[in-house]
Amino acid sequence: RNMSSAGPEGRKKMRECNGLIDSLVYYVQGAIADHEPNDKATENCVCILHNLSYQLEIELPESYTQSIYMQRRNISSIDKTPGCFGTRSRKVKEKQQDTPLPEEKSNPRGVESLWHSTLIRIYLSLIAKSTRNYTQEASLGALQNLTAGTGPMPFAVARTVVQKANGLPSIRAMLHVSHPAVKKTAVSLLRNLSRNTSLQNDIAREVLPELVSILPESVPGSDIVCETTASICYTLYNLTQSSSHNARLLLNSDSLPKIIAISMNDSNMFSKASRAASVLLYSLWSHTDLHSAYKK
Q: b vs e for 111-121, b when ≥16 Cβ sit within 10 Å of the residue's Cβ?
């Protein structure tokens, strides 16, 4: 687990280690089958898999990228300090390349397992069944890593999470846990998922009211809550930017007073949340058919 946080070279060596990823997946599968999702070894395995999924899209060997990607993207300002937890996942522009992956292999091996639907379902199962916060956070974080890029793989993973594996109910439940880091990672995952336009209506229907319910009434009082609040606003922005229907859902959820209150604070400490709320309000105003409702 410590070594998997050692940076790009460490991740590369561990991904290439024959049988390592397969063994980690095998152990976690066994723990779920034996109804033991809360043991420490399972937590360690999931944290390792989480770390090995970090920046996976841009660190895959060329042999994989030639068969999977139409085009590699050069992304600057990459975080150089990966780790099991924290703000590690690469921030990407809210855009998509909605191209499906080649057909999945029925028996993935090694690095192929990291984005395979089998492991995605394992993460979702752990999110639902484990009561260990670190295991929940690592499972959410792994999915966040896998959905953080701009190529076809992140969007294929997003479709698996939302449509094939019905993962939204489990993720939605994590919005109400008391552990702030788990909640923050769940929101960051939803933000990544919401970039996929084909999934936005499903996400809005399933989690938009929940996102509104955890928005603070005013500017949040800590860095982690501030970041979570900003991510909620950007997720709502993604869901409503191109959909007047979803914007009306947001309006009917009585969220505007909260969003306005957050946007009006000009303190440097909370500028991230305030800026995100302002971007959301600006976007909502672009739906001219809702102007009279907004004014009321």
A: bbbbbbbebbb
Angle at 181 between CA 132 and CA 83, to 5 degrees: 90
Looking at the structure, tell me whether residues 7 and 136 fall in a common domain. Answer: yes
Confidence of residue 153 (pLDDT cuts 50, 70, 90): confident
Q: Can you count the helices (H) and strands (E) in the chain? A: 16, 0
Assign 21 to helix, strand or coil.
helix
For residue 71, is it within any domain? Answer: no
For 225-278, the pLDDT digits (tens) are 899 999 999 999 999 999 999 999 999 998 999 999 999 876 665 688 999 999
For the chain, give the mean pLDDT: 86
Q: Are residues 153 and 270 in the same domain?
A: no
Grouping H, G, I as helix, E, B as strand and the rest as coil, residue 216 is coil
Q: How far apart are CA 79 and CA 85, in angstroms?
A: 13
